[in-house]
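Known limitations

Files may contain more than one protein. Parsers should not assume a single record per file. Below, a two-record file is shown to illustrate correct handling: read the sequence, read the token line, then continue until end of file.
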Amino acid sequence: MWVEGYSGRAREEGDMFALVLVLLAAAVIVVAFGAGVWWLRRSRSAVVRPDGTQEITILVKGKYHPQTFRARRDIPLRINFVRDEDEDCSRWVIFPDFGVERTLPAYRTTTVELTPDREGDFLFTCRMGMYHGSFIVVPDRWRSVAPRCRRNR
């Protein structure tokens, strides 16, 4: 009788251990999924090139990828739109705050050049507004720090 009671307790402990493992595995899956979504949705930044411009490539396929990016103020910006489709809606890209509108030929790369001269969030979209993205213009921290460094010398 004592052996049966012991095996019953062992079975309960085994069930509890299995439950803890299942809950731990579920928590790991939820955290990994959340991290993956964050990674895909995070804002990217335009890369500053040695020639003093900044550049980013945007894939146009069902939507803009990435939909949001960061750029620095007062540095010329090159946005390379790689249109990997022939949907009518993605044929144009418009930057209303900068007065820029370009045709994006299907299965080609089109470069849009502009210089963000003020900070803020700026929209770009197709003519119908079904494709939309934005970019955030931030201060160029290196240019804003340089005058202070020179003054302190």
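...continuing to the second record:
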Amino acid sequence: MQCMEVWGGNRGIDTGVEVPGLEGWVLARPHAGAEAGGDIHYVSSCATGRITRLLLADVSGHGSGVDSVAVELRNLMRRYVNMIDQRALVRSLNREFGELARDGMFATAVAATYFAPARRLVISNAGHPRPLVFRAREQTWSSIGIESAGEDGPANLPLGVLAPTSYDERAIALVEGDLVVFYSDSLIEARNAQGRTLGEEGLVHRLRAIKPGTPEQVARSIVQGLDGLADDDVTLVTVPGALETPQALQRLAQSGDYEALVALGAVIRGETYHFEIVSDESARGIGEVALQFGVPIGNGVLTCDTDEQALARMDAKGREAALAALELACLFDDLDDA
């Protein structure tokens, strides 16, 4: 499949883009007014305009180092955008990005392919916030989630976390007047007029209050009145095992640099009592760190009988742990202001 780049980059932008069957608007504001940042947008027209491929990614961190990594990720998008199989495209980005990214860096991403003749949009998600869709006929907004196909091994993880990782996809049909919103996590971590973190639910609520119009009108209405876009600085730390998790959390918490922490992992039952010791000590240590330093910690460490159970539960458990940490961080802010 032959594709031609229509628009792409990681610099601030506020402009429209139009391809056969689609009209869109790209609004990007790099961190702290910088010229460029870690959010990458990419639009490509393929197969003589019958197919459009869209990519949005968010590299963890800020600063010139993130800018340079974002440029390299965009180059990878150019290299692999011609791949017909979108899942293979995201797998390739994951593998290559894992080799070029610095220690602890990763990128969430969403890839979408629009088939104009069939008005069909196919979406793959690598740990990115879920896109939102407005259905013109029903006048409703909803999120576009992707269920794992249940293949062996990790699935739908952010780019650069673990290779090999498999990626799933979901197809939706679009009609005239439908809208799809792709965004980075800085939007749902922004604060509304009441000082509360927006979150996906708050974003959907905000969209329902907006009269659907052109993509430009919707984009501007979403960000209007928000207390800036959040400083979405994220650090990923890996540890040898569950027993070492509290030690890593303690070091991060005592630095004072983090508003919330999330512990992710799995303890698999064996044929000895060791399983009980590891799971109990890990949970106890995580709780002690949270109480000692007053930093919200979401405990997403699974205890399962088999690897298959862990793989089936990890997405939901990780999401629950992250939301719990964020909600507790917001509560702490409210209590501090009271």
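Parsers that stop after the first record will miss the second one. For reference, the second record is described as follows. The chain has a mean pLDDT of 85.
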